[in-house]
Design a protein that fits this description.
2 domains, about 40% strand
Length: about 200
């Protein structure tokens, strides 16, 4: 009889709190929004005590079913919670900034008798594309046959820095990627890149 009782308790414990999936978008767009998902199942005899979200180790969201208000959010750099669009299984982050990138963790804790806690994590990178096409300087309207041209191609601020590619429109196989020779990081965090390319080219009539 004791052996049967032990087996039953073990099965009940195994069917208690189960964290199925934590979904964090791999990329977020600057000034946009993202949703984080935390999917779990509970047993009727082991209800939810609290659910918490963290960014880089700092708690920014808490859902407590037995406390009013159920939802609390806490000031955290780079995190702006849309409380009206957030709930038990998901959190919406609005006004994504470069500081929003990092590691996010969902932590789920069961109530008595186990008080068990499970957690899952995911990382997000914030993408900020260039606001305009690259600028090319150093190209003169007229050149001589065989003349060497020193051209400077500069991309606008982006995160991560843009990859630059040069192409001579008159040659089908002239495209190649360039490794930026310089970087500049403005005060607001994004990066611009530039490359100085030397081209030996012939002039066609």
């Amino acid at each position: 009889m004791n052996r049967l009782t032990f087996t039953t308790l073990l099965i009940n414990f195994a069917l208690g709190l189960k964290l199925e999936n934590v979904t964090v978008p791999k990329y977020g767009s600057l000034h946009g929004w993202v949703k984080l998902y935390c999917d779990f199942v509970m047993d009727a005899d082991e209800p939810l005590l609290v659910l918490k979200w963290y960014k880089d180790g700092h708690e920014f969201f808490r859902y407590s079913p037995n406390i009013q208000p159920n939802i609390l959010d806490f000031p955290t750099a780079g995190v702006h919670v849309n409380v009206s669009q957030s709930g038990l299984n998901h959190v919406m982050l609005r006004n994504i900034s470069l500081q929003s990138g990092g590691s996010y963790k969902c932590e789920v804790s069961a109530d008595r008798p186990s008080f068990r806690t499970l957690q899952g994590t995911g990382d997000m990178i914030v993408i900020a594309p260039p606001a305009a096409d690259p600028e090319i300087t150093g190209i003169h309207p007229a050149v001589s046959v065989g003349e060497t041209i020193n051209a400077n191609c500069t991309s606008f601020h982006s995160q991560p820095a843009a990859s630059l590619m040069r192409r001579l429109a008159r040659f089908a196989n002239s495209s190649q990627f360039l490794s930026p020779t310089g970087w500049r990081r403005p005060s607001w965090g994004c990066t611009s890149s530039w490359n100085l390319a030397t081209l030996n080219m012939a002039v066609w009539s």
